[in-house]
Each structure stands twice: as C-alpha cells, then as structure tokens.
Specification:
By secondary structure, this protein is an all-alpha fold. The chain has helices at 3-42, 47-64, 66-93.
C-alpha cells in the first residue's frame, strides 16, 4: 500500500464521517439558533430550555436517518475490506513485500 493509497483511504474516512455527521450538526445548529432567538425575545434564560429541544431534534433526525447512515457505514466498511483484501492478495503473490 503506497502513501497515495493511505491518503486516499484517510480522505474517504474523513469524508464519510463528515457526510454522516453533517445532518445532525446542522439540525442541532438550526434548533439551537431558533431556541436562542426565542429565549432572547422572551427573556427566558434557562439552560434546559436551550438544551432539551436541541437534544430532541437531533435524536429524531438520528432515528429518521438511521437506515441511510447505516448503509453509508456498511458501504464504507465494504470498500475498506476490499482494499485490505487487495493488499493481502498482492502480498501473497509477491507484488508487494
């Protein structure tokens, strides 16, 4: 496995992590901004009032996207296992030492 292959695998891992985390982070950000705006307009400064809606929204989105997220993780794992298998075959044939 060359350095380019390692960099490509790392890039794939980071992009997969970003794609999986981005919907949850965006929902948390939007709900946090909206609840913060409502709190500032109503002069309610309660930490639970800011945390609870964000937690509920992120949990609901995680449940709704669980199937899609698991398929992305499985696709990435299959791709990585294929790379490991290719490396093992190349090692057995003597192409890579």
């Amino acid at each position: 496995m060359t350095e380019a292959d390692m960099i490509d695998a790392l890039r794939s891992a980071l992009s997969a992590a970003l794609v999986l985390a981005l919907p949850l982070l965006l929902v948390g950000l939007l709900v946090g901004l909206i609840s913060g705006l409502i709190q500032s307009l109503s002069n309610v400064q309660d930490a639970a009032a800011a945390f609870a809606p964000r937690l509920i929204a992120v949990a609901l989105v995680a449940i709704a996207l669980a199937g899609w997220m698991s398929s992305k993780v499985v696709d990435f794992a299959v791709m990585m296992m294929g790379c490991v298998l290719d490396l093992h075959v190349l090692t057995l044939t003597g192409v890579v030492k």
